[in-house]
Design brief:
Elements: E1 13-22, E2 34-46, E3 53-54, E4 57-58
Antiparallel strand pairs: 1-2, 3-4
Length: 59
Amino acid sequence: QQFSALLDEGGIYNLKYFLVRIANRFYKPVENCNMISFTKWTTVEVVLQIPPCFFGLHI
């Protein structure tokens, strides 16, 4: 709940200290077998400047 105010759909973020788990069978907003879970140690940083080489793509 504490992270919903920090995250906007379509935004770019650096996330640290989260868990990757098997997706919940009852709530799957996307068709994927994995999901991430935030912990009390998770940090969220908004990316304001997209680097010229983002995900190996030259923008």
